[in-house]
């Protein structure tokens, strides 16, 4: 049996970029009434995502903060490099191959990877296999030719 506490959804990017997909998924997460944690191991990439979320749409932004800033526990979306769940989030987003512990607590984990990057694809396949062997509740989402997300597994 898996030690993870919730669903693990893989998002295979082929037509869109992380900068296009992540804000949409975060917005849906907040609409659901959940808090989110976005794990990004690279400091520069984390800063890029931070800026992107503030300017997501001309008429809107996604309220968020960085784990190393004051009041991290209050943030509806928290950008972090480690496994600490400071904002008591229900959703965990793993991007750019960042680490994930099988013992983390979440309702849903999103593993988002670029299918055009051979290393990212290999890492995602390895994670899928390990999580499947651990008995995790998995789903695999891929973009259709029209750009819609379709559940492929």
From TrEMBL:
State which Enzyme Commission number(s) the record gives: 2.7.7.7
In which domain of life is the source organism classified? Answer: Bacteria
Swiss-Prot/TrEMBL keywords: Nucleotidyltransferase, Transferase
Key word Metal-binding present: no
Q: Which GO terms describe its molecular function?
A: DNA-directed DNA polymerase activity
Q: Which InterPro entries match?
A: DNA_pol3_chi, PolIII_chi_sf
A Pfam family that this protein carries is: DNA_pol3_chi
NCBIfam families documented for this protein: PRK05728.1-4 (NF004347)
Q: What is this protein called?
A: DNA polymerase III subunit chi
Give the organism, scientific name.
Answer: Brevundimonas aurifodinae
């Amino acid at each position: 049996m898996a030690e993870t506490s919730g669903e693990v959804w893989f998002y295979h990017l082929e037509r869109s970029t992380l900068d296009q997909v992540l804000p949409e998924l975060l917005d849906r997460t907040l609409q659901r009434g959940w808090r989110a944690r976005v794990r990004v191991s690279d400091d520069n990439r984390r800063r890029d995502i931070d800026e992107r979320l503030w300017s997501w749409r001309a008429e809107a932004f996604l309220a968020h903060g960085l784990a190393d800033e004051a009041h991290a526990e209050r943030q509806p979306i928290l950008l972090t490099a480690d496994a600490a769940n400071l904002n008591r989030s229900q959703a965990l987003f793993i991007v750019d191959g960042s680490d994930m512990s099988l013992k983390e607590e979440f309702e849903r984990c999103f593993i988002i990877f670029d299918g055009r990057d051979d290393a990212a694809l290999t890492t995602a396949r390895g994670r899928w296999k390990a999580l499947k062997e651990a008995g995790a509740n998995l789903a695999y989402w891929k973009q259709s030719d029209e750009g819609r997300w379709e559940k492929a597994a």
